[in-house]
Amino acid sequence: MYKTKKIRIGDIYIGGGEPVRVQSMTKTKTIDWRSTVNQIKNLEDVGCEIIRVAVPDMSSAKVLSKIKKNIKIPLVADIHFDWRLAVESINQGVDKIRINPGNIGSRENIEKVVIAAKKKKIPIRIGVNAGSLKILKKSEGMLKMSSLQMAEQMASEMMENIKIIEGMDFSDIIVSLKANDVPTTVLANRILSKKRNYPVHLGITEAGTEFSGIVKSASAFGILLNQKIGDTIRVSLSALPEEEVKAGWEILKALGLRKRGIEIISCPTCGRCETDLIKIVHQLEKKLLTFNLSPLTLPLKVAVMGCIVNGPGEAKGAEIGIAGGKGFGLLFKKGIPIRKIPQKKWVDEIIKEIKKEFAK
Ligand code: SF4
Questions:
Q1: Are 218 and 244 in contact (CB under 8 A)?
Q2: How far is ligand 1, taken at its centre, from the CA of residue 332, in Å?
Q3: Residue 300, strand partner residues
Q4: Residue 81 lies in a domain
Q5: C-alpha of residue 309 to centroid of ligand 1, in Å
């Protein structure tokens, strides 16, 4: 079995069989550290486990210790081009830095970053994205590369970077190879996984809006995680970062890799359905989001099914469920019918039952 090296980031570990972690990145200006802290706190509430912030300039680097002091999850500084920003971020107390050694400049500059990371015992994530490949900058013709050629190139530039850092006697490395399409991302990660066993961060760059971004990310992560490739994930979306975290959790739950929070199972409805099930499920989902019961702590399946013909049977694995009849719903627990409920009380009654489960 492919097993990666276990690496510590702040108070948690990644790789080496640890649970696949859900990450996100803030979308505030980092220098506005209060807004950044607020956004991170919101992300902590929905289950974000590692947070990355962009560090575009020295003023942003200088507020990192303030951010770090006010949050609970590990803080990662994302650096491009300037080694000084990386060194300052490390000195400010971040738990990890993300760099692309290819754009940090000379070997001496990379070495300054590595020495600082070694001193503070923090890991370095090497990120190589398809869009910033050195070879693309050299030749426009190479844009016509196939997914496989692109993936090989990404893995090869990653290996160059890894070797530079390994050559500095540093191996607390995390790698990420991202493209904006699924085949290239999958191939690049597969190629690299045969060469090194550093923990892998998975992501699709510029994945798009919620709909397409989640579909792309879920497809790529599903393939790779099934092959035991991937130790942390980020669902990059042109949307609020909370949506990225929620999507990340849904993907991991769907793959059976993590268990957390309330999972709604609902049927697609068909000609047998006697209720406005789609509306009810959305009402329930909305209510659960504002639900003050630490919904992320207890894994719980809640089924909302359109009819009593197939409903309870199809949702046997759910702790709580409801199946529609004409004007009523049959409440069931673990597939066993309990009582009838008028249609307009479905959502409230389900919430009541969930509260009972939490109180156990
Ligand atoms: S649970 Fe009933 S209504 Fe829903 S899809 Fe199945 S058969 Fe149709």
A1: no
A2: 15
A3: 262
A4: yes
A5: 7
Q: Which domain covers residue 298, as residue numbers?
A: 262-359
pLDDT along the chain (360 residues), means of 10: 86 96 97 98 94 98 98 97 96 96 87 96 94 72 78 95 95 96 96 97 88 95 97 95 94 91 88 90 84 60 87 79 88 86 91 82
C-beta 272 within 6 A of ligand 1? yes
Question: Which single residue is written with the structure tokens 């990225």?
Answer: 244
pLDDT at residue 108 in the model: 93
Contact by Cβ (8 Å): 312, 337? yes
d(CA 217, CA 248): 9
d(CA 308, CA 25): 44
Q: How far is the CA of 175 from the centre of ligand 1 (A)?
A: 44
Q: What pLDDT is stored for residue 133 in this prediction?
A: 80
What's the pLDDT at 78? 96
User: Tell me, what's the pLDDT at 290?
Assistant: 64
Picking from 254, 273, 299, the residue at the C-terminal end of a domain is 254
The pLDDT of residue 10: 96
Roughly how many angstroms between the first and final C-alpha of the chain, as a whole number?
A: 38
| CB-based contact 125:174 (threshold 8 Å) | yes
| Ligand 1 mutation target, pool 275, 278, 314, 316, most atoms within 8 A of CB | 314
Residue 270, ligand 1, Cβ within 6 A = yes
Residues 266 and 122 in one domain: no
